[in-house]
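FAQ: What does the model actually see?

It sees only this:
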Amino acid sequence: MLISLFLLLESCLLSPNIEVNLISMVRARLGPLGQIVAWFSFLLLLYSVAAAYLSAGGGLIANALSEIFNVSIAESSGTWIFLIVFGFFVIFGTWGIDWINRLCVLGLFVCFAALVIFVIPNIDWQHLSGGSAEYLWVTIPIVVLSFTSHIIVPSIRTYLNGNVHQLKIALFWGSLIPLVFYLVWELLIFGLLPLSGPYGLETIASQPHPVAALTNALHNFLGVAWVPVVVALFSFFALVTSFFGVSLSLFDFLADGFKIKKSSLGGKIILLLIMFVIPLLFALYFPTGFLIAIGYAGVFVAILYGILPALMVWHGRYIEKKKEEFRVFGGKTLLVLMIVGSVLIIFFQI
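And it is asked to produce this:
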């Protein structure tokens, strides 16, 4: 995923326009057919993921408000609150999202540290044994999706004024830090919770809102009132930061694709409507689609950020003979391997 991230950066840098986004990049390198594939894949990916984040975030907010005010809050109300509060920041563009995102990342680190310190002594190492390696391939599309920071590469290029050195640092560490977080998080959750039972992993996975179900399970096993609160906050901060990435990407992508001016109020309102109406309807009327959306999104990631960047780089290097300032190692062999690997990811999901 890191290699595909840098291939996307290379294909992005092939365009001299610093504000170029995916549609314009694909149109210039791969023509109308590539443009249609990019439109279709990008909208299905971002709409499905945005709906998943709205659904999960709404569930967390509804649970929290129900606990605080001791009344029953509908999950649909939580979804509306999540969208109104955090969708608002998209209006301010990258700098506005950057400011609130830094606060959320700080909260993420604090919550994560507290969980690590408290949960590790309670891990049952027997929970980590067993399993069947033959089923590992099922996880590949979801793991791929978990490392899809690609969606914000064009926006970050604009934000960092095309500084290649800063871009490489941002993309490398921006991928490595989540890897460490994910590995430790898996250790904590799989080590603490059993596979089956009323609060087991199988039961949590079958719930409409698995993130909310996870907090209840942790409360049951640890019996400490503040731990579910910290888990809920950690999950919430993780959702918000991911939602910001999706929203910013959709905002810039749609502005580029429809040639809508992001600087005008009317343009921003139109973009917000195009961005959120469909994911909102999905989250409100099909909330159980959280895991389905996340699973199938891996297919569109493979197309958008595996196949298309490799083809764009191939066209730029070997057909247009461009001499860009940044080039990923590996030559044609790496590009072919990237395309083959992406096709395999699609096959695994199907």
